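New to this. Please check this protein:
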Amino acid sequence: MLSFFQKIFTVQFETETIILRLEAAINQLKESVAEWVDPILLGATDVKRVFLSPKAVEEVLPGKTIIQDWAPYKPLESNPEKLVRQELIWMVDDKEEPRIISLGTAPYRVPFGTGYHLLNIDIFGKHFPRVRNQFLAQIQQRTSTLKGPVYCVLSFESSMWHDMLSFCQTALGLHIDREH
């Protein structure tokens, strides 16, 4: 069910290198006002209201489902409450009329090599410039406290695969490590 709605790929980067590339990409996008809308970090009190809003459920969430780290959650009152207890970063492009919603996990150590961390980012919505902005903001939020190598598993609307691949390669110098 997941692959029908979302495309998933993994990129690998060194935190110290990506920080500079993130700043450059964000600054370049901010210079073009039409390209950048600041992602809004949601607090726990806003999560349930935004994620359970009829607009988000009907128009943004794939299959009317919250997907976090490959696990599907129906938009029921109890599920956002469960997810808020995790150390997720919740972002939207607009609190009242969201077109893009994203969830980012706290990085956790993985045994791929010395010092590796894994970061999962799930982005919902179909407007590529705002999806790209959420991706950049999610990475920026987490890399500020990391050092060393990171695997980032990114999930997004499958129709944007070529745009996201091109952006990752040209603006950030990243290459797909794995595609799912």
User: Anything to note?
Assistant: Residues 2-179 form a domain with the Aminopeptidase fold (CATH 3.40.630).
